[in-house]
Amino acid sequence: MPPDVMINIATLVPTRACALRLGEKGQTLLRAAAQQGEPSLALEMIRLGACIDYPDTELTTPLVLGLTHLVVLTAVAAECPAQLSRSEDYHRSKRRVIRIAWVCKLIIEQHADVNKTDGDYAPLDLACKVEHWNLITLLLEHGANPERRGPDGLQAVNRLTATGSKTRFLGLVRKNSNPVRPAKPCPCWSGKLLDECHALGPKPYPSVFLCRSVSGKLHGNCRLQRNVSFQEVWYKPKQALVTTQRSYGDPRELCPQMSQWDFSGSTSAFDIWRSYTVVLDLARHEVWLR
């Protein structure tokens, strides 16, 4: 991954990931993941709420960018001289092609707009250019328009060279003539569909994740030990998981020292100050959650 897009994920906790823009073209971290073929980064950014179709200043979406680089790298590998095909650079490029295709598959399954384009080639055009059948099939299953013409006036089927490939493509088109888009996997990566997971209602914020208090500690080692728990729920308008609720326990459990304070009689200024800091701490939480 290029140094200019390296970032500590911990700094993203309070930030909506889709708004994080890098460089002159407004590149987001999800776009960087699609371009570079970084599955781990793509998973993290989608988990944090990255907008799947968030474009750069040139209106290029992560899916289109990833597929464009897939086409370029595939063409370079195909034209590589035989003596270079055994080099580490060649094999590194081949591995990158596999990773980019995996990230593109992930983005499609998260219901990216498969017909959205910046006026150039659509995702289906690009997948057909390299005859990547897994992506071609997936795009058609998710509603890609096979009749759309690119800037050169050609439909996606005309980008396939072999007659057998065109026949195979038309068979897939007939099979998916009236597709019902497959359900979206839950972006918490539980392995369940969204409708069977977070869309059903709030779920506890994972204790092994960084605490939403931005303390830098794990949630299980921070607020959760003080009975301040966060919950996540699927927020449809933003198409993202958001923290929606927190629960407070007994104030004496939030701050164990409070059980030792005596408020029955005269209260020292220091005890009042300690009480104030606890209340202020909770207030900061409430403001942040809004």
CATH hierarchy, class of the largest domain: Mainly Alpha
Q: Count of DSSP helices?
A: 9
pLDDT below 50 for ≥5 consecutive residues: which ranges?
1-19, 282-290
Question: H/E series, N to C?
Answer: HHHHHHHEEEHH
Distance between the termini: 34 Å
CATH superfamily of the largest domain: Ankyrin repeat-containing domain
Most strands sheet:
3 strands, antiparallel
Question: Which class best fits the helix and strand makeup?
Answer: mainly alpha
Organism: Heliocybe sulcata
Keywords: ANK repeat, Repeat
InterPro entries: Ankyrin_rpt (IPR002110), Ankyrin_rpt-contain_sf (IPR036770)
Protein name: Ankyrin
Descriptive overview:
With 290 residues, this protein is mainly α. It folds into two domains: 3-175, Ankyrin repeat-containing domain (Serine Threonine Protein Phosphatase 5, Tetratricopeptide repeat, Alpha Horseshoe), CATH 1.25.40; 194-289, no CATH class. The chain has nine helices and three strands. Strands 1-2-3 form a three-stranded antiparallel beta sheet, covered by helices on one side. β2 (229-235) and β3 (240-247) form a beta hairpin. α1 (29-36) packs antiparallel against α2. 27% of the residues are buried.
